[in-house]
Amino acid sequence: MRGEPHDLLLDVTRLVWRAWRGGLPTGIDRTCLAYAAHYRDRALAVVQREGWTRVLSPKQSRELFSLLLDASGARGPLVRFGLGALAGRSKGETAGRLYLNVGHTGLNWPGHMDWIASSGVRPVYFVHDLIPLSHPEYCRPGEAEKHRARIQALLHSGVGVIANSRDTLNELDGFSRLKRGRTMPPGIVAPLGVDDLHAGQDSGAAPTLPGRPYFVMLGTIEGRKNHLLILNIWAEMARRLGTNCPQLMIIGQRGWESEQAVDMLERCEAIRGHVIELSRCDDAALVAYLRGASALLFPSFVEGYGLPLVEALALGTPVIASDLAVFRELAGDIPDYLSPIDGLGWSRLIEDYSRAESPSRSAQMKRIAGYEAPRWKGHFARVDDWLAELHPAA
């Protein structure tokens, strides 16, 4: 898409407050960072907080994009940048410009819809998932109501919707028809890329890999990710196999309502020495751990996308995953799929994959040879062309 300088408005609210709090980047954060990197030279940054929204000047936007894209962390520099100075009414012409919000942030806040109406912007929203609406049992209390408000705002004011998968777009369309009795705004599917997730990272010393076959689980420890199933399988294998038990690496922070999994990690003697928990892991180490693994384990009950699955396959690492529609959309028949409640099936397949001459693993390695991971270049080629159709004057 060829556009004049600063013809887009890019909301970076989520990145600002995540950097402020020092949180590790999630899949949504990585999407926001990719959009900031791609549009930094042609977009003005938008920052909102409950009660106000500010469109930054070109100079401020350049500075803020640079701070947020600095992999070393931005909390200190953000303090010096002066977030307090961002409060106040936006100045400058916004009417008719495309406003991109790719982080779900602010749509349910007081004043957001008023700003959309008063500024005259044309909003385009990225939808990552509808999990708080379809599976509220896996979310914090009140999250369903918040997400319903976000989705309703999106459907009411959006001129376009970008979805990470066909599965997500179908979920949104179903919600729109059910709740509003009409179709949603025009939408496209643009899968998330994996090519530059680890670019520019200082690899440093290579991590020491486990000395026996091991498996990786990647993601926040929470009920939806089904860590408890895998930990119970490991406890049973450890008691039965002893030193021949493979190892499990759990990479991710402890999240909401993870008490049962945490109890296993902290109090189950059987898995001691067989399960390694890493709450923080830089990108270079993560790549090394994934490459050396017998398989990535992805037993989630529900997902909006599945970035770990795509990353693992891009690195040539087999995947054992829940039989979810979105996983099949992303990876076809390459992974081995199981029900997330099939404990015996998971146990048998994990033991199979841990063997040096595993037939199941060998078969998947042949299937991986034909896999082509989605790339950010392809993502933005699709999005840029589509935005040009939405905003032909740009």
Describe how the helices and strands are arranged.
Layout: E1 8-11, H1 13-21, H2 27-39, E2 43-49, E3 52-55, H3 58-69, H4 75-81, E4 98-101, H5 112-119, E5 122-127, H6 131-134, H7 143-157, E6 160-163, H8 166-180, E7 187-189, E8 214-218, H9 227-241, E9 247-251, H10 259-267, E10 275-278, H11 283-292, E11 295-298, H12 307-314, E12 319-322, H13 325-331, E13 336-338, H14 343-354, H15 359-368, H16 376-390
Parallel strand pairs: 1-2, 1-4, 4-5, 5-6, 6-7, 8-9, 8-11, 9-10, 11-12, 12-13
Antiparallel strand pairs: 2-3
Helix pairs in contact: 1-4, 9-10, 9-14
Written description of the protein model:
With 394 residues, the protein is an alpha/beta fold. The chain has two domains: 8-193 and 375-390, Rossmann fold (3-Layer(aba) Sandwich), CATH 3.40.50; 214-368, 3-Layer(aba) Sandwich (Rossmann fold), CATH 3.40.50.2000. Helices cover 43% and strands 14% of the residues. It has 16 helices and 13 strands. The strands form two sheets. The chain has a seven-stranded mixed beta sheet, sandwiched between helices. α9 links the parallel β8 (214-218) and β9. α1 crosses α4 and α9 (227-241) crosses α14. Mean pLDDT is 89; it is low at 197-202.
Please name the defining characteristics of this protein.
394 residues, alpha/beta, Rossmann fold, 2 domains, 7-stranded mixed β-sheet, 13 strands, 43% helix, 14% strand, elongated
